[in-house]
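TEACHING EXERCISE
Course module: macromolecular assemblies
Task: Read the component lines below, then compare them to the predicted structure of the full complex.
Student: A.B.
Group: 4
Components provided:
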Amino acid sequence: MAQTDTVTRILDTAEVLFAERGFAETSLRTITSKAKVNLAAVNYHFGSKKSLIQAVFARYLDPFTERFHAALDALEQDYQGQTIPLEVLLETMARSVLEVPAERNSLKVFMKLLGLAYSQAQGHLRRYIQEHYGSVFTRFTGLVRKATPELPDSERFWRLHFVLGTVIFTLSGLDALRDIAEKDFDEHVSVRDLVRRLRPVVVAALQAPLPEGATESIKAAG
Amino acid sequence: MAQTDTVTRILDTAEVLFAERGFAETSLRTITSKAKVNLAAVNYHFGSKKSLIQAVFARYLDPFTERFHAALDALEQDYQGQTIPLEVLLETMARSVLEVPAERNSLKVFMKLLGLAYSQAQGHLRRYIQEHYGSVFTRFTGLVRKATPELPDSERFWRLHFVLGTVIFTLSGLDALRDIAEKDFDEHVSVRDLVRRLRPVVVAALQAPLPEGATESIKAAG
DNA sequence: GTCACCAATAAACGAATGTTTAAAACATTA
DNA sequence: TAATGTTTTAAACATTCGTTTATTGGTGAC
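Instructor-supplied answer key:
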């Protein structure tokens, strides 16, 4: 089947180039020539460059959400309505993220893509991700809510984004940081090393004391 | 003086557009037309688009490094060789960052630019920032080292980047997050509110317990 | 007043981009 | 085998990009 081969070769090449250079900086000609595919193949199979970008993300996020939902199902089964501890929730999410790209050894690419999704403008991509994968995030935050009853809702909202920033920022910029770390500390770190280092930091961040001063911010006119 | 006027009008327009859309997605024609300046003015005054990007950053980072160095000077004077507490160091850095763009109400732009500097490829920009502003960061990390003697060097290195990720990620993506927060919690947050929320989280992250398992990672052949 | 210098302008350049077209090659089915 | 539908291919399309050129306008020096 020649079609499938062409499609996957485009996706394989595109995801690497996107992760390395970003979306706007990667031309279809670069992708197709490196993938040894005709230039028109992208528009034929995907319709447009935007759709190609979305397809690259879908190939990671579809299996991720499926696994993550299943893992949360199992967790809720185990805890029978009892609140799931924060560490368990974080551990489960980390495991789901790590499992997905395992087969292709492309965890680094996956992380870089997530970073790009946040930082690069690409309004269409943000909308696409929000629409297709927003529900699983909502489910997760609901469970975190039960696990951290001491946090006001708004405080939890911000802290989740704080740690999200930590994780995505670190793992997506891994290469550059790793080079420095190896030069300065003679130390080779793998992604899994980093996840191990991240764990206590993320937990501590979520469980930090509430900020002093006004606990309640100015409420808008409702 | 017409020259100065043209130059600043280009910089004022460029920094906003870069922050909104990124570098590659912002054309010189968009900048010059919005700035009501001739297209060739950019190449005439700055030489190239790359140099314009660097100039945009320099206009923020030059005064920042100057202030930050001065603040650290004063701090070292005060503490007379004694170790400066971590909270004081973080507070000083936060204050220096917040002061710079105050005059132009462009803190948001400044933060977005910092985020772009990390996330967008732009190798030339990373090199430029490293070359011109690396020293002040080195000085700061040296002081943090004294303030956190319990941390192994490599662990401190990674944790500083963790919290850097938190701050840049949060503040550069502020607009989108703020919209959600306002919708969900009827709560209006300013940048300074966020800094107040960030403080305990950052401190907790830096002071979190060491990761369990191997404290030392695999050493490379030295 | 004219000369020299700097800035602003309009126009054009060459290169690169995403997309479309039309023909060829291939595969599938009857 | 003939007919049909799908994929690949080469070429061209229309834009857009950063940059350069040549000209004009303005300003201060002597």
